[in-house]
Amino acid sequence: MTLTGEFFAFMALALVAIIGGVLLLNLNKVVHMVVALIFTFVAIAGIYILLNAEFVAAVQVLIYSGAITIIMLFGIMLTKPYDDEGESASNGSKWRRILLFLGVVGFAFAVYVGIYNFPIDQVPSNLHENNTLEVGKALYSKYIIPFEFVSVLLLASLIGAIILAKREDKEGDSK
Amino acid sequence: MSSVPASAFLALALILFCIGLYGALTKRNTVIVLISIELMLNAVNINLVTFSKYGMAPSITGQVFALFAMAVAAAEAAVGLAILMSLYRNKKTVNIDEMDQMKH
């Protein structure tokens, strides 16, 4: 691991991503949590650029830091925010939190043992040449059927979301 | 060759996944739980793109798979929020501890 520009870019982006995630856990207001997570999403887009995935990075900025953040803000504003995280921090819930934290740390340690000194040698790749063109070729030739299924899935979820969120007419009101 | 090892990217994805897991299990607001699940899906996408570059046989497939995962995540967020809206209309709360009934 030598000190190059790529290394410093990775460290900065990883730091921003992790700080955004920690702020998500620690902030008190719900809207602040969502805004903190935008930092994480944009930093992850930068990580994708480091990994020669420019098209995925652009989609990440559009979908996650654009669409999903806005839709979550709509969800917060259309419901009454439940800000009091510490209000019902009774003894039982504190113990539950500590146990959950220990469990998550144990999971992280187990996976870290697996990925530490990841043994695969680096193979030279040509992913950086015409990345978007290659993604398009793969999507429209090899993965054309899953691509069409994704469009069906999006249509189904669109209709399902509308039907679920639609205000049901009361029987007495419509007459 | 790249100066950042593949395990560094995998470790970043692991940390983000654990943050999302802890948030999804402890937060009380349902919107925040949904957002934590999105964070976990993002961490998995980092892994997919990392293996598309540093895997045994580098190819574009990992990036295509990450795009599919993003599409499914967007659909999941939309349907999850629609369910949350309809629950909120019936119970007037977004506290996840009070959503313990399948009927209202």
Automatic annotation (TrEMBL), chain A:
Compartment(s): Cell membrane
UniProt xrefs under Gene3D superfamilies: NADH-ubiquinone/plastoquinone oxidoreductase chain 6, subunit NuoJ
Cited InterPro entries: NADH_UbQ/plastoQ_OxRdtase_su6, Nuo/plastoQ_OxRdtase_6_NuoJ
GO molecular function, one term: quinone binding
UniProt topology in membrane: Multi-pass membrane protein
Reactions catalysed: a quinone + NADH + 5 H(+)(in) = a quinol + NAD(+) + 4 H(+)(out)
Pfam family, one: Oxidored_q3
The keyword Ribosomal protein appears for this protein: no
EC number: 7.1.1.-
Domain of life: Bacteria
Bilayer-spanning residue ranges: 6-27, 34-51, 57-78, 98-118, 143-165
The entry's keywords: Cell membrane, Membrane, NAD, Oxidoreductase, Quinone, Transmembrane, Transmembrane helix
GO cellular component: plasma membrane
Cleavable signal peptide: none
Chief localization: membrane
Keyword Electron transport: no
Enzyme class, broadest EC rank: translocase
Assigned protein family: Belongs to the complex I subunit 6 family.
Chain's role: NDH-1 shuttles electrons from NADH, via FMN and iron-sulfur (Fe-S) centers, to quinones in the respiratory chain. Couples the redox reaction to proton translocation (for every two electrons transferred, four hydrogen ions are translocated across the cytoplasmic membrane), and thus conserves the redox energy in a proton gradient.
The name this protein goes by in its record: NADH-quinone oxidoreductase subunit J
Species per Swiss-Prot/TrEMBL record: Neobacillus rhizophilus
Automatic annotation (TrEMBL), chain B:
Single GO cellular component term: plasma membrane
Primary site of residence: membrane
Pfam families: Oxidored_q2
Protein keywords: Cell membrane, Membrane, NAD, Oxidoreductase, Quinone, Translocase, Transmembrane, Transmembrane helix, Transport
Subcellular location field: Cell membrane; Membrane
Entry's EC annotation: 7.1.1.-
TM helices/strands, residue ranges: 6-25, 32-52, 64-88
Top-level taxon of origin: Bacteria
Reaction it catalyzes: a quinone + NADH + 5 H(+)(in) = a quinol + NAD(+) + 4 H(+)(out)
GO biological process, one term: ATP synthesis coupled electron transport
A GO term, aspect molecular function: NADH dehydrogenase (quinone) (non-electrogenic) activity
InterPro entries (alphabetical): NADH_UbQ_OxRdtase_chain4L/K, NUOK/Mnh_C1-like
Membrane disposition: Multi-pass membrane protein
Family as reported in the entry's similarity comment: Belongs to the complex I subunit 4L family.
Subunit details: NDH-1 is composed of 14 different subunits. Subunits NuoA, H, J, K, L, M, N constitute the membrane sector of the complex.
Function as written in the Swiss-Prot or TrEMBL entry: NDH-1 shuttles electrons from NADH, via FMN and iron-sulfur (Fe-S) centers, to quinones in the respiratory chain. The immediate electron acceptor for the enzyme in this species is believed to be a menaquinone. Couples the redox reaction to proton translocation (for every two electrons transferred, four hydrogen ions are translocated across the cytoplasmic membrane), and thus conserves the redox energy in a proton gradient.
Name of the featured protein: NADH-quinone oxidoreductase subunit K
Organism encoding this protein: Neobacillus rhizophilus
This protein's encoding gene: nuoK
